[in-house]
Amino acid sequence: MSILKKARDNLFIVMIAAAYIILFIFRPSMGITSLKNSAYYIKEMIMIMPVIFVLTALLDAWVPKEQIMKFLGKKSKTKGVIFSLILGSISAGPIYAAFPLCVMLYKKGASVRNLIIILSAWAVIKVPMLLNELKFLGFQFMAVRWILTVIAIIIFSFIASKIVKDEDLTVDIHENGASGEPVFINKSACVGCSLCAKTYPELFEIKNKKAAIKKGNRQIDEEKLAMAIRSCPMKAIYFPNRQDYDL
Ligand code: SF4
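YS: structure for the whole thing
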């Protein structure tokens, strides 16, 4: 029973393992090639991700939340679009390196739309990519593709932000902590036990079997929040002052 539960909780890994087993049984050569490719990407990730995490932590510490909200927040409008395009374009490294950065930016107030623009620009119009394109395919090809891609990114980010809402992300956020700091729920870690909602029902609720933060601006009752954080068996609730709660 517990093996079945573990398999269900790690369904993605189980599916990959099953795909490898099937490949090795029916197409062993393809299985070996896949294994080599996976090993190559895992090695690359092990080398790159620590650097990305350090850079993200430094940015988190150095760039004030107000600046992120001003340039990338929901009210940043055209300025946010331009800044997101620039941020994604001047980036370096593989696209998966962008995800921890985007989580940090989101926690500090960046909007879903601007995150989509950053990720899209990072993936398809990075400056190093454009320079290579210019070298191999010429200026006209590069310029036309760049213009059309930017237009597509702007349109699709607008559409995507109408479909993907804040509550759909794995990180739930409350903007107005008593200290001005936000409260987060890591929905990937949350098991939906509802202890937080029972402890602090004015702030937490259960939606789709996961904890969520109730809509609406309210001051945080830090005492209740501390109890809710302590009650969470998965340590899924994060408040920047949580060390104050002796966790
Ligand atoms: S207490 Fe933690 S695990 Fe349980 S519902 Fe709340 S956030 Fe999720």
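YS: worth flagging: The first strand starts at residue 171 and ends at 174.
IM: good catch. Also The beta strands are 171-174, 183-186, 204-207, 210-213, 237-238.
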